[in-house]
Amino acid sequence: MLKIAIYGKGGIGKSTTASNLAAAFSKTGLTVLQIGCDPKADSTKNLLSGKKIDSVLDVIKSGKNYSIEDLVHIGYNGVLCVEAGGPTPGQGCAGRGIITAFDKLEELGVYEKYKPDIVLYDVLGDVVCGGFAMPIRGGYADNVFIVTSGEMMSLYAATNIVTAIENFAKRGYAKFSGLILNKRNIENELEVAQKAAKEMNGEIICVIERDNLIQVSENQGKTVVELFPESNISKVYENLARKVLEVCNG
Predict the structure, then answer these.
(1) Phi-psi region of 202 (alpha: psi -120 to 50; beta: other; left: phi over 0)
(2) pTM listed for this prediction
């Protein structure tokens, strides 16, 4: 089982990348479990025709009896979808919510029941502390890929994530496996990102150009891999899936 974390600054296209990556993996016959680790709990909606599912924390807080099926929802092409969720804004720690959700998934035997080939953690990376660092410090993820643009704040967040990974790497935890450049079409963006990647002792494994088909798909609650499978941008995500597997198995 490959355990992969996708990190990045909020709003950078991290969930779009993760869900299209999950869809691309599924088309190769792999069983994929995507776990959204953001209080907004919207990581998997484009794998579920736009439906926003109850998060693990929501189900726990409901006080009702529940089963694995209340936490794990089947999305496009069999992709398994879970949202960790978070507390009511201003009440409680969102990072702690991720820890609670992870513990519950293990307690209920989700991994044993579904036997995923790949687990994708979609993690907010603005602040790499507490529960938000769980995928890289708790022995959950083996490889971490960071979605970034060439913008300063996005690269700043990426640098912080890499620093956190390096601090935990000494304990045998996850390793930084590359940047995914989600372009915003700023001046000299590729060159700026390549320089930053070199400073992080990493490389850009994929460049995703801006494409209006992404927005068209998301407006319909879909990934481009599902809605426009023959498009150039869909092929980019399929190539990304191949590259990720190559790096992780390398």
Answers:
(1) beta
(2) 0.94
| Catalytic-residue membership of 64 | no
Token couple for 71: 């936490």
Question: Catalytic: which of 14, 45, 104, 222?
Answer: 14
Whole-number Å distance between alpha carbons of 87 and 94 = 6
User: Which residue is catalytic, options 42, 54, 70, 126?
Assistant: 126
35 Cβ contact partners less than 8 Å away, ≥ 6 residues apart: 43, 82, 83, 84, 101, 105, 119, 120, 121, 122
Q: Which two tokens stand for residue 21?
A: 């990556």
Contacts of 192 (CB under 8 A, 6+ apart): 150, 155, 186
Instruction: Let me know if 40 is a catalytic residue.
Output: yes
**What are the tens digits of pLDDT across the range 87-101?**
666 666 666 778 888
198 labelled catalytic: no
Tokens describing residue 223: 């990934």
